[in-house]
Amino acid sequence: MSYGGILIFAYDGSYEGFLSTVFDAFLMKTLPADIVIFDDAEPSLMKMHYIETNFEHAKRVRLGIEKKLSTKTLCMVEKAFLFDGEGKENAIMHFLWKAFKEGPSTGGKIGSEEVNRVFKMSTAVSYEAERFRQFTRFSDSNGALVAVIHPKHFVLPLIRPYFCNRIKNENFLIYDAEHGVALIHSPEKTAIVPIESLELPESTDDGFYSRLWKNYYRHIAIGERYNPRCRMTHMPKRFWQYLPEVQEELEPGYVPKLSFGTAKEIANSIRASLPEANY
Amino acid sequence: MDIYEKLTILAEAAKYDASCSSSGNGRTADEGYIGASTPAGCCHSFSADGRCISLLKVLMSNACVYDCKYCLSRRSNDFPRATFTPRELADLTIEFYRRNYIEGLFLSSAVVGTPDWTTEHMIEVLRILREEYGFAGYIHAKAIPGADPVLTHRLGLLADRLSVNIELPSEQSLVSLAPDKTKHNILEPMGLIKTGILENREDITKYRHAPKFVPAGQSTQMIVGASPETDYHILHLTESLYKKFGLKRVYYSAYVPLQEDALLPSIDTRPPLLREHRLYQADWLLRFYGFEASEIIDPKRPMLHPEVDPKCSWAVSHLDDFPVEVNTADYEMLLRVPGIGVKGAKRILAARRYQKLDFDILKRLGVVLKRAKWFITCSGKTLQRIPDTPEMMIWSILSPNRMGGFTDYGMEQLSLFETVLTGEDVRECLTGEF
To answer: Measured between beta carbons, which residues in chain A are less than 8 angstroms from residue B354?
Structure first.
C-alpha cells in the first residue's frame, strides 16, 4: 500500500492509544515520520493519520511483544513510555520496528542506537521512580496520608507497588501535580485517577512528628564531617521541597527546573537521530 | 524528660555508628499491618555530612556502665543521660515510617546495668513492633557483648540484621582504649550469630514455617585512626571476618576526636576521611571485584595510596596485564579495569554478544572512559597513546585534575608512592561515594 509522501500519526496520548498506533504502522507497513498527540498537533503539510484507540489492537500488540520478543522487552517498552519527553513515541516505534525484524534478542543490543535510546529512556524513568520512593513525604491529615510530587516522568505506576506494599493498612494519596494524576489507596482498593487540582489539606498532627524528624536530622549529622557536596549528589536540590528536614535550607523562591539533564539530552538525541521530515 | 529531648540525646549518641543500610532482606507485612522491606533497601534522606539516613538510628539508652576512652557515653563523662521506654520508641518508629521518613529502625544501646537487662529491653521494643504492630520494615539491632546467648538468639529472631562492633582493629588497642571489652566477648556473639544463621539456613529448607534468624546477615564496624594499626592489618582483618564469620559488611568509621586523653590522638586531629574512603574502596574490591587482600596491599607499603585508588594502584603495578581487549576479555578481567564497575562490565558482556564494541558504543553504554581509557583497547585500538611505565601512567591518570595544583606544589609530588596530599585530593575524596 502506498500513501505517497511522509505520514504523521496522531493518537490520544494513552498507552493503549500508542499500541494501536504501533498496530496501524505494522498493518500499513509504514514507519511514520512522527507521532504526535491530537491536542498538540501543529498544522502541517504532511498527511495526518488519526488513530482511534482500539483496545483489541493494543492487546494484540502487547501480546505480540511479549510472545514474539520477550517479557523483558515489554517491560522496557512500558517503562520507556512513562518517559516524559518529546519524541519518545517515535523512538519506541523505531525500536519495535527493528525488534520485530531482528527477533527477540534485539532488546539486549543496548549498544545499537535504536535500542540504546529506549534503554536510556527506561533507565531514566526507573531512576526518577527510585528518587520518589526515597523522597516522597507524607503528612497526616485526620489519619489519612497525603503527598504531592512533581516528577519529571510519569512515575506513579512504578512507585505504586512500593507504597501499596509498605503502608497497605493506611489510606493515602500521592498527587502527581506535574501530570495531573493521583495514586489513591485505601486498604480495600487502589487506583490511579486523573485529578485537575488539589488543595493540600493542613496536617492535623500539628507538625509534631515533622518537628521531631527535623530535630533528629540535625543531630544525626557529624559536624566534623560536614560535606554539602556529597549530600547534594545523593539528594539533589529539586527534591528538597518535599523534605521537612532540609526545606529550611532552601533559599526562598527556589523553583526547580524540571526539563533538564538526562530527559532533555535524550529527547534531543532522539530528535537529532530521526530522519529529517520533508516539509 | 519529653520525647523531643530524649531523641536529641540518643540520636546524638548513635551518630558515630556508620552502618545505616536497609538491604539484604525482603519481607511483607500480613494483610492489614504495616511495613515491607526490599532486598535492595532504600535511603530516605542524607544528613549534612553526606551519609545516608535509611533507618531511625538511636540508642535505647546512653547510661553506660562501661568506660571506653573514645566514647562520649562512657561512665566517667558528665553528660546528659536518657533512656527510651520500649513503647515510646516503637510508636516513634511507626509514626516516622508511615510518613516515609525511614525504612525501619536501627537499635543500639549503651550497656545499662547488665548486658542481659539491656538486651531484654531491646527485645521488648522489637517485640512490640513485630508482634503488636505486625511491622515488617527493616530492623537492625546491636548484639550486646556479654549477654546471654539465649537472649541474643531471641533478638536475632526479631531483627533483620544483627551486628557486633569490633570497635578497634587489634586486641592491644582494645585493652588500652576499651578496658571493659575484650576480644573474646566481642567475637563470641559474632560466632554465635554465625552458627545461628547456618543452622537456620538448614531449618528453613526443612520446615516451611521455621522462623528466620537474622535473615539479612551480620555486620560489624571498627574505628580507624584512633589506634596505630595499618591499612594492611585492617584489610587482612576485614578479609578474615568475611571468610571466617561470613559477615555481610565491615564498616569503618574515621575517628572523630571527642575528648582529650594521653592514649588517643590529640583533640585537634582531623578525622581521617580520605583514609576511610580508601579503605571502603578496598573493601568493595574484596566483596564485589574478586580481589584478595594480599593483592591490594603488601606489608612493605602497609598504607593505601592516598592519591590513587586501590584498584588503580593495583593496575598500575600490573601493567603487563593491560591493556585489556574489551571485546574478548572475561568478566573477571573487565572488573579489574580501573573505571569499569560491576554494572559497566555486565553491560559490556551483554552488548558485545551482538556487535563489536568501539569507544563510541562504550560511551553509549554508560562506561566512563576518563580512567578506563588508559587500560583498554577496542578491536586492538586505544583511544590515546598509553604510557608504558608506571610513573608515566600515574602521571597521565592524575594530571587532568592536578594541573591547578602543580604551580603550588611543584612536579616532585607526583613521584610514585611518596606524595603529599593537596586540598584538591581531600575535596575529591570528600565528594566520592561514601
So the answer is: 105, 108-109, 111-112
Mean pLDDT of residues grouped by 10 in chain A (279 residues)?
65 94 93 84 75 95 95 96 91 95 90 91 95 94 91 95 94 93 93 84 80 94 91 93 91 72 62 52
Sorted by where each starts, the structural domains of chain B and their CATH numbers stand as: 3-266 (3.20.20.70), 310-431 (no CATH)
Number of A to B CB contacts under 8 A, please give it. 163
- Interface membership of A164 toward B (CB under 8 Å): no
**C-alpha cell, B96:** 516516622
Whether A231 sits inside 8 A of B53 (CB atoms) is: no
Nearest to B15 among A166, A219, A235 (CB): A219
The answer to whether B218 and B248 have CB atoms below 8 angstroms apart is yes
Q: C-alpha cell of A47?
A: 498527511
CA distance A218 to chain B (A): 8
Contacts of residue B164, Cβ cutoff 8 Å, sequence gap at least 6? B142, B143, B145, B186, B189, B190, B193, B218, B220
- What is the H or E stretch that residue A125 is in? helix A113-135
Q: Which helix (H) or strand (E) element contains residue A37?
A: strand A34-37
Q: What is the ipTM of this complex?
A: 0.88
Output the nine-digit C-alpha cell for B207. 520446615
Which strands form A144-149's sheet, in the order they lie side by side?
A: A139-141, A144-149, A172-176, A181-186, A189-194
Chain A's closest residue to B356, CA to CA, is A111
